[in-house]
């Protein structure tokens, strides 16, 4: 599903109305009817106590009038509270206000004194928040803020129309105050601010309402920005053909590990194996080989003579590594690699010269700080998987700057490095230099434990080795990795599971996603 900013949504809206001639009133009717049907489906147990629809002055309020009308038609008691006088309403919203007036639905107008509204909030079964949608332009104040505060204190089920009122559809931050919804019924497409933090806290469960915006409008005009959820993943995962063998799924080379950090190499191999690579070989310093021979069963090792005094790989092994990688389908480099100058020199040369797709993580990202031109000389796709600290070092900016707008900075990084950027965190974003981007919707804080990044690196490399197009490999890896964490959070608990288990749960995540694909095709 595509992800949009408010202004992009408004353009799609306008195009639908002006180019396809679908009147805004039809869109509003579909928006309101679809939301009313969702409310009946999910909240019929509290509807008999009455639905309280709170409307703002714009088309979001207009949606609210349509919802009230449809709930009334289905026999449920409704009460409509308008936070603006009739003369403030225009266009489709005004038309729907006049309809509910003619139908004599219970309709009240409030301004500064919201005492009546407070009483109704206490007495109702559920609240429909139709105050502001994508037209929110400034900090919420006055009686609008008081109403939102009363809604949040009510502990009633709250259905946000299009977006929780007060939440910025773009930044995902509240403009002063925002409704904390139980469920958000968003029109046509999810908005960026709903799927990143803190927006996700305010949205509750997110459901998309089809308002009959023509598919071609979305496919041709909507930005190539994707929400990585189970529907996206089930469309992009490829089930296996019966006539296949290890070679079909590629041989992954892992360049990782050094003294004291052998676990990172082992976890990367585990991620690659559980991610479906046909074969995995760990290229390692000879002095550590005996450790890996014991720790790794399904993965092979390729021990190298040349190593540094901290038992890390050295550029002196460059030629040998290049010849070993002939015929391999993809490589991981970085986890636990060490920060030795000779290792950094090796990273520079391999990133520029190794002509197979490569996932660059951890110490290999640190090696590229101030050396981005090696990436620009790359002869095959590069995927970088930094956490905010690593990206801050790579771009020589502060972590605060990254936290302020993760997607913006990831775009800058993709451009500067001419590589795909996976900026890990809540929520992980994937940005490609060709303009495609994605926000991950799976995962949870239980994944914030050492080594899960190594598993992700191996997993993405395995997907590259199986022939997934690099941007898809990065997105599918991020999604499956997060889903593994969700499976573990359900099965074991909100945190306390470890990286090894995330690798082990990958087959379950793959199964769930493929099952969903099969169901989707039924
Ligand atoms: N395809 C679709 O997505 C459709 C969406 N619909 C609904 O329309 C709204 C957007 O409507 P719009 O009139 O542009 O704005 P809002 O209703 O969100 O409200 C803005 C309204 O309020 C005023 N305002 C803005 N900020 C503040 C503030 N802080 N304090 C006070 N007043 C404020 C502003 O001047 C406007 O008048 C969308 O979200 C959907 O719900 C269509 O119904 C169907 C198609
Ligand atoms: K709203």
UniProtKB/TrEMBL annotation:
InterPro entries: Carbohydrate_kinase_pred_CS (IPR017953), CARKD (IPR000631), Nnr (IPR030677), Ribokinase-like (IPR029056), YjeF_N_dom (IPR004443), YjeF_N_dom_sf (IPR036652)
The record's free-text note on cofactor binding: Binds 1 potassium ion per subunit.
Subunit structure: Homotetramer.
Function comment: Bifunctional enzyme that catalyzes the epimerization of the S- and R-forms of NAD(P)HX and the dehydration of the S-form of NAD(P)HX at the expense of ADP, which is converted to AMP. This allows the repair of both epimers of NAD(P)HX, a damaged form of NAD(P)H that is a result of enzymatic or heat-dependent hydration. Catalyzes the epimerization of the S- and R-forms of NAD(P)HX, a damaged form of NAD(P)H that is a result of enzymatic or heat-dependent hydration. This is a prerequisite for the S-specific NAD(P)H-hydrate dehydratase to allow the repair of both epimers of NAD(P)HX.
Residues that bind AMP: 424-428, 453
Start and end residues of each YjeF N-terminal domain: 9-219
Keyword Disulfide bond: no
Organism whose genome encodes this protein: Thermodesulfatator autotrophicus
GO biological process: metabolite repair; nicotinamide nucleotide metabolic process
Name used for this protein in its record: Bifunctional NAD(P)H-hydrate repair enzyme
Keywords: ATP-binding, Isomerase, Lyase, Metal-binding, Multifunctional enzyme, NAD, NADP, Nucleotide-binding, Potassium
């Amino acid at each position: 599903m595509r992800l949009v900013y408010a202004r992009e949504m408004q353009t799609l809206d306008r195009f639908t109305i002006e180019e396809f001639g679908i009147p805004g009133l039809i869109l509003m009717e579909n928006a309101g009817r679809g939301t009313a049907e969702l409310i009946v489906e999910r909240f019929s147990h509290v509807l008999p106590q009455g639905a309280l629809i709170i409307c703002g002055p714009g088309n979001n309020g207009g949606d609210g009038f349509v919802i009230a009308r449809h709930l009334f038609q289905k026999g449920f008691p409704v009460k409509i509270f308008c936070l603006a006088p009739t003369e403030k309403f225009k266009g489709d919203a005004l038309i729907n206000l006049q309809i509910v007036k003619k139908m004599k639905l219970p309709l009240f107008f409030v301004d500064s004194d919201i005492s009546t509204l407070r009483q109704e909030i206490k007495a109702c079964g559920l609240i429909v928040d139709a105050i502001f949608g994508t037209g929110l332009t400034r900090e919420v104040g006055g009686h609008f803020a008081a109403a939102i505060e009363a809604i949040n204190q009510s502990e009633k089920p709250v259905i946000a129309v299009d977006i929780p009122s007060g939440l910025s559809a773009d930044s995902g931050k509240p403009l002063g105050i925002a409704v904390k919804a139980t469920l958000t019924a968003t029109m046509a497409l999810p908005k960026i601010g709903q799927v990143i933090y803190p927006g996700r806290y305010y949205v509750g469960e997110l459901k998309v309402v089809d308002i009959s915006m023509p598919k071609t409008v979305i496919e041709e005009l909507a930005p190539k920005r994707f929400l990585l959820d189970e529907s996206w993943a089930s469309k992009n995962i490829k089930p296996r053909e019966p006539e296949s063998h290890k070679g079909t799924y590629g041989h992954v080379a892992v360049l990782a590990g050094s003294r004291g950090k052998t676990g990172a190499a082992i976890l990367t191999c585990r991620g690659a194996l559980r991610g479906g690579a046909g074969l995995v070989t760990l290229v390692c310093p000879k002095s550590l080989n005996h450790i890996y021979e014991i720790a790794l069963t399904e993965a092979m090792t390729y021990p190298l003579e040349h190593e540094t005094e901290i038992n890390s790989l050295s550029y002196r092994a460059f030629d040998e590594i290049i010849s070993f990688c002939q015929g391999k389908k993809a490589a991981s480099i970085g986890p636990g690699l060490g920060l030795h100058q000779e290792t950094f020199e090796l990273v520079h040369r391999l990133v520029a010269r190794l002509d197979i797709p490569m996932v660059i993580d951890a110490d290999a990202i640190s090696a590229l700080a101030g050396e981005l031109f090696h990436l620009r000389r790359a002869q095959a796709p590069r995927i970088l998987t930094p956490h905010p600290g690593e990206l801050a070092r790579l771009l020589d900016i502060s972590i605060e700057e990254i936290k302020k707008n993760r997607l913006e900075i990831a775009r800058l990084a993709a451009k500067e490095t001419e590589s795909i950027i996976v900026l890990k965190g809540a929520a992980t974003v994937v940005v490609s230099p060709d303009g495609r981007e994605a926000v991950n919707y799976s995962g949870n804080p239980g994944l914030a434990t050492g080594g899960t990044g190594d598993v992700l690196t191996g997993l993405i490399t395995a997907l590259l080795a199986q022939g997934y197009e690099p941007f898809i490999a990065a997105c599918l890896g991020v999604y499956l990795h997060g889903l593994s964490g969700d499976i573990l959070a359900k099965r074991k608990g909100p945190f306390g599971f470890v990286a090894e288990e995330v690798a082990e749960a990958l087959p379950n995540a793959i199964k769930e996603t493929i099952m969903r694909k099969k169901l989707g095709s039924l």
